[in-house]
Amino acid sequence: MHTDRDTLFSRLWDNYCEVTPSAEDIHRLLDDTQGGEIVNDHIALRTFNLEKVNLDKLAAHFLALGYQEGGDYHFEAKKLFARHYEHPDPSAPKVFISELLVEQCSEPVQAIIHQLISQMDPAAVTADNFLYSGRHWDIDYPTYQTLLEESEYAAWVAAWGFRANHFTVSVNALSRFRTVAEINQVLKDNGYRVNSSGGEIKGSPEELLEQSSTMADRADVQFSDQTVAIPSCFYEFALRYPKPDGQLYSGFVAASADKIFESTDSC
């Protein structure tokens, strides 16, 4: 496992940008227009809750770097469980890890997921590069489509494997922009699609967190039978509000995260 936090996040970013070129473009756009450092609020990772690759296996890489457990989140309709992690150093990005509750899926989907994960070397999960190692199994396009019919999340993990699903710009750290609405307008003015599920801005000052995101880029995936362009990753934007004690809220809002998941939908 990585012993240096900056190295891990740098590798995750590079891997993410390979299939999310819009993120680098938006990063430069904000950098050019606001003239300050772009701070990463958090990243998100996806997995299945099977023992070999469950949430705890991914989290171990961050716990080894001094991260601590934050809140738990449940997404019943999407059959997901998630937990976020924070570092005692407040400048460190937060980490949001989710897992699909495979046993709640249909039997055919369960069988597919078990077959995919059975192809993995158990030692892979402790390798330095695991969190940005991509796919460890063969899958053909019809199987991907079968998963997609039931769970966009399952299909995404099956196609992309292990990598950051998104990075997040901290709106609090921007000097020119003060609101998520301003960010959304700049994105749309420059031709980017903003996730409008549940409204373009998810959350509220009352919930101490506002978020928005682009819709995912499309990138080629080499399935075992053909290469197809499918939704890859997206860029998120988060504005945090102070709690009564004056400290910025550091958690997440499940109802908002539920809609952010849909940034990788096909339509």
TrEMBL record:
Q: Hey, which family's this protein in?
A: Belongs to the 2-oxoadipate dioxygenase/decarboxylase family.
Task: Give yes or no: UniProt keyword Oxidoreductase.
Answer: yes
Q: Which cofactor does it need?
A: Fe(2+)
Record-linked Pfam families: HGLS
Oxidoreductase among the record's keywords? yes
Species, as recorded: Marinobacter azerbaijanicus
- Per the UniProt entry, the Enzyme Commission number(s) are 1.13.11.93
User: Which keywords does this chain's UniProt record carry?
Assistant: Dioxygenase, Iron, Oxidoreductase
In Swiss-Prot or TrEMBL terms, this protein is called 2-oxoadipate dioxygenase/decarboxylase
